[in-house]
């Protein structure tokens, strides 16, 4: 069955889920969502998203099944053993040394599903500090958006197959109880589970070790950047973050640097001040926080205010953030203009169009200068060079733009006096200009090549994430099929046991037993019947009983069988002259009884044949 293509109704389904259930799937990758929802269509027997949209509105219990399908909970104990071995040998020892009972180690397992990941870490820590002291020295916060998965995680009861990957040395932390194994109470109490939406809920703070494995790959790139900004804010300086195999941080080098790239272990880049950390969170997550400016910042602001050059500072969204005293004096601006969009101010387009140049600054991320902009000032004109410069932090993140107005009136006068000298240099200037254009063309080509390589890298990363997602989906489907296979195997065993029991019963009877259905076809032919009439069971199976050529005149049994099958009689007994397989004349007593189902309906007849006595 092919996937549905009516994307308009697919978007309506997502909007319906957000309105009725408060869950926003818009940050998830569209291809993955369409594939998972199309799977639910196959399960309920529908072919289009339009039909499924109507189905959701009628069947309220379908929401739970849909969420379980979309929110893939594929996890296991000690998943990717080399990663856990590296954490145990290289990451956990220094973290434990830096913390104590008074300052416990704080761990966050984001997207924990049914709890195997945080419990794995808890067992590793218990091996180092003891299970009885684990709760006092370590705080493990495990969060997920799937409430059903969290319920299973809190119970901490797993099947034998679910703990198959647990090393033998760690099995001591499980207590056998019935068909499941329950995690040790001391280890279980060290983990705190809670519902948490990575995109909308506030992150857990002061985290030393962050685990988020194969969760980010389900989000689009914008959502990934927002979540990583929250992770960066929540982790302590030099904290450790562990991601999944399909997740990378190429675009977040200002926040995380790799410790072991193969195992996806990263360290948080420390910032000089808390203000910088809040700024990155605001840029990526659209959150705003306030803090008191320290003395160096106040000194910098005072220097900006006292600068003799007129200056304006715009933030990344084009809002006027600062105006110094010279700009307020000479450009007709005031304090009331702070906080306004730059494009709403008259200076943005008069006496020169600055908005287009400002767009170039943000696009090219380099300084743009407008030379000798005439500024009307009474009878004598004034001229300014307008310099628009991008502002970056220490890590190269674009913060905003500075617009400076440098007065060049005197310079313009000198330039007029030297105009005739420029004519002599015209030829040389043209040659230089040509060379400059060639260099600029080469630079643009190189920039284009770099952008193409970055695009190719992002596409490869996206493809890798998509393949990993499909791999987890296949693993989830394989687990479902394995469960169904176990059930079928158990039922097959039960059926075999029942058949052996019936064969033993039939074999132990002294009478010949024949069971027929409503169509008079033989269903059972026991060993005594084989011995009496000389015909094997495989020869008469599914044969018409009245057509059998045996020593018994079966045609004379038709009335009795018909009476029993029709329900007129509960039992009929007929004695017939017959010949056994040895050629011996006998009187055979045939008892015909009904074969009833659970609802007492007659589904066939049971014939008991006994030899009464032989003729000399």
Write the layout of secondary structure elements.
Blueprint: H1 7-21, H2 30-44, H3 49-58, H4 62-70, H5 81-97, E1 105-110, H6 116-129, H7 134-137, E2 138-144, H8 147-155, E3 157-159, E4 174-177, E5 180-183, H9 185-189, E6 191-195, E7 207-212, H10 221-234, E8 235-243, E9 256-260, E10 265-268, H11 274-285, H12 295-306, E11 310-315, E12 320-323, H13 325-330, H14 355-364, E13 368-375, E14 382-392, E15 398-407, H15 409-417, H16 419-424, H17 426-508, E16 512-517, E17 522-525, H18 527-533, H19 537-540, H20 558-565, E18 572-579, E19 585-596, E20 602-614
Parallel strand pairs: 1-2, 1-7, 2-6, 7-8
Antiparallel strand pairs: 3-5, 4-5, 8-10, 9-10, 11-12, 11-15, 13-14, 14-15, 16-17, 16-20, 18-19, 19-20
What does it look like?
- This protein is α+β, with helices and mostly antiparallel strands.
- It has five domains: 64 residues, Orthogonal Bundle (Chemotaxis Receptor Methyltransferase Cher, domain 1); 202 residues, Rossmann fold, CATH 3.40.50.150; 115 residues, Beta-Lactamase (2-Layer Sandwich), CATH 3.30.450.20; 44 residues; 109 residues, PAS domain (Beta-Lactamase), CATH 3.30.450.
- Helix content is 44%, strand content 22%.
- The chain has 20 helices and 20 strands.
- The strands form four sheets. The chain has a seven-stranded mixed sheet with strand order 6-2-1-7-8-10-9. A five-stranded antiparallel sheet has the order 12-11-15-14-13, sandwiched between helices. It has a five-stranded antiparallel sheet with strand order 17-16-20-19-18.
- Helix 1 packs parallel to helix 3 and helix 2 crosses helix 4.
- The longest helix has 83 residues.
- About 2% of the residues have low confidence.
